[in-house]
Amino acid sequence: MAHRPARFARDPLYRSTTRVIGLFGTDAPGFRECQDLLQAELEGRYGVKVASRYRYGANVQNDPSVIPRQTAEAVVQFKAAGVTTLLPFIDPFTTANLTSQARSQQWGPEWVMHGAAAMDFDGFARLYDQDRVNGHLFGMSYIGSGGYLGPESEPARLYKKLTGKPLPEGTDGDYYVLVHMFNLLQSAGPALTPEAIGAGAGSLLPGGAPRFDLGRWSFRTSADGASGLDHTEMDDAREVYWDGDATGPDGKKGSFVTTYGGRRFTNGEWPAEDPPVYPKGCTGTCQRTNAAIGFISGFLALSQTRRSAVRR
After folding, report:
1. Is residue 67 in a domain?
2. CA geometry: angle 191, 231, 224, nearest 5 deg
């Protein structure tokens, strides 16, 4: 995407402008270091300058009451810097605030997500201001396209196999994180210590196939793809774009659509071409104003996905 026009932006002027990158993220430790690494990579390796960067939550311990004010400030800053392409390192509820502020201030960039912090969950993306993101939100997603929640999800299929009954809606609970914890405990052996769990993690076989509900998991490759212990075991991702009119695996309106037929990529495999998102272009449906929907389903999804802190 570097050094190419921001052709997926909402603002027509931006579409003919070489991408100007903005970075928005929490000031919380861990996320801040990730943003520093990304900025260093963009500027040092690819010659892509980050024109504007805003850190929210600084000195307020991420107090949610100040998020509307900070997102408003961020939009003013990004718009003044001519940012055409925003990289948001944020949670879904802050994203909802940010997209709402973008609409209020008539700012229409591309939104390029990194896939962490549950930004790639349909239930949350339905909360975003659809006038800003429908036709303009795309990026990486670690989860699969088969439905991580809902009647066809792994917990629902397992429940049906064990009981012969459909899983009651909203009771997926912490299935994925509990299975993950069980695998780690089992790998540790009879002497349950932090050291044993750490050693056992490296012995676990890669998991996730064939549906890749939560992607390919492995502790055996480091972040650069080399062999070695990896503390965040996600090894691959798919490329997606948001379609507010598509039907999700849960049967509800609004879903992420995959490119390349759902193919998943790991280090060194990503295509060099401009992402083939929105292959039919952005027509009337992309510009339509939709109220944010699915707040309850999005909130429930958050309680079901505390595993994010473990796997990402």
Report:
1. yes
2. 140
Q: Which residues contact 164 (CB under 8 A, 6 or more apart)?
A: none
> pLDDT of 67-80, one tens digit each?
899 999 999 999 99
- 103-125 burial, b if ≥16 CB within 10 A, otherwise e? beeebbbbbbbbbbbbbbbbbbb
Residue 3 lies in a domain: no
Spatial separation of the C-alpha atoms in residues 65 and 60, rounded to whole Å:
10
* Number of structural domains found in the chain: 1
Tens of pLDDT along 215-252?
888 888 876 677 777 777 888 899 999 999 999 888 88
Any alpha helices (H) in the chain, and if so which ranges? Answer: 12-15, 31-45, 67-80, 92-104, 122-125, 130-133, 154-163, 175-188, 194-201, 284-287, 295-303, 308-311
Amino acid, res. 211: R
**Distance (Å, rounded) from C-alpha 45 to C-alpha 47?**
6
What's the pLDDT at 218? 87
Q: 245 is in which domain, residue-wise?
A: 12-144+237-311
Helix (H) or strand (E) holding 149: none
> Where residue 110 sits, what CATH number does that domain have?
3.40.50.2300
What is the residue type of 68?
P
Q: Which residues contact 277 (CB under 8 A, 6 or more apart)?
A: 8, 138, 239, 240, 241, 259
